[in-house]
Design goal:
Layout (H helix, E strand, L loop, with lengths): L1 H5 L8 E4 L4 H14 L6 E6 L6 H14 L4 E6 L2 E5 L9 H10 L9 H17 L9 E4 L7 H8 L9 E4 L1 H4 L4 H9 L9 E2 L2 E2 L12 H10 L3 H15 L15 H11 L22
Helix pairs in contact: 10-11
Length: 292
């Protein structure tokens, strides 16, 4: 690993580059390409599509592929394993997400985040094992786009809290290189393309799953006010979970705030009366499986 000490973006063994579809992880990928003269033979770039990413995110992943001439493997969860898709065939109506909810018969929540584990981590791992990776105590390095100005996330990932990561080494090159949201923003200001989603204090509010239950209530309400149709799938899943009812508490994504149907109804009733509070933009719960 000596070369990585000098350049955290250098790859010297089997490495999975986890690409969330956001600006930060895309910048990480670009730095990897620059440091290695392209994508090394023993590196794989994976984008795990849940079906609830904004269309702009899917376009951005495709644009990175095309503009940088880099292969990106699009993986999706399936009840019997996983599937490799592409921009044209990727799910856009939450199909992978709904499939795992139906399999579990209850909804993920801030404590039990099986959506991240099943839809992203395990889907990527299944693809890597299909390539023959996975022998021995250390199988591969996993590059994740967490910046230096996200110290709590850096600490949590380096503490290896998940049993899903026991055979991989989590690598955080952006944090090691001291990269901040300002650096990422400056980079994309100079590029001919970018992620066509607005940011607030460096955060892409509609990034990852559009109305993820880990996002702050004010943020979710604001996103619903912007596009009310965003709430339809989430409200449908809460109704589905209530019908399945394998767990009494599993019929809502969050017990500590209104349901998605209630937030949608509130937005429709209040129209423009709801003001987005910048002070409430930081109440999101951190998730080690999602990056900007």
């Amino acid at each position: 690993m000596a070369t990585r000490i000098l350049d955290p973006f250098r790859i010297d063994g089997p490495t999975c580059i986890s690409f969330s579809g956001g600006r930060t992880s895309a910048y990480m990928l670009w730095r990897v390409l620059q440091s290695n003269g392209g994508l090394p033979q023993d590196a794989v770039v994976c984008f795990a599509n849940t079906g609830k990413e904004d269309e702009a995110t899917l376009r951005f992943v495709r644009d990175c592929e095309q503009n940088w001439n880099v292969p990106i493997v699009w993986v999706e969860y399936r009840p019997d394993g996983y599937a490799v898709v592409d921009f044209d065939t990727a799910s856009r109506n939450g199909e992978p997400f709904e499939a795992i909810i139906r399999k579990r018969n209850y909804l993920p929540n801030p404590v039990t985040r099986f959506c991240t584990v099943e839809l992203k981590i395990r889907a990527m791992h299944k693809h890597l094992r299909s390539l023959g990776w996975g022998e021995g105590d250390h199988c591969w390095d996993q590059m994740v786009g967490i910046r230096a100005d996200e110290p709590s996330r850096v600490a949590r990932i380096r503490a290896r809290p998940s049993p899903e990561t026991t055979k991989e080494t989590m690598v955080l090159p952006l944090a090691d290189a001291g990269i901040t949201v300002t650096d990422v923003g400056a980079f994309w200001d100079q590029q001919p393309f970018t992620l066509e989603l607005p940011t607030y204090k460096g955060k892409t509010l509609a990034g990852n799953c559009d109305l993820c239950f880990l996002k702050g209530a004010a943020q979710v309400q604001s996103l619903i006010a912007e596009k009310p149709e965003r709430a339809i799938w989430w409200a449908k899943m809460e109704a589905l979970a209530l019908a399945l009812a394998s767990k009494p508490d599993g019929a809502v994504f969050r017990k500590d705030r209104p349901s998605y149907a209630q937030m949608l109804a509130f937005t429709q009733a209040q129209a423009d009366a709801f003001g987005y509070s910048a002070a409430e933009a930081d109440d999101a719960i951190e998730c080690v499986g999602c990056t900007d």
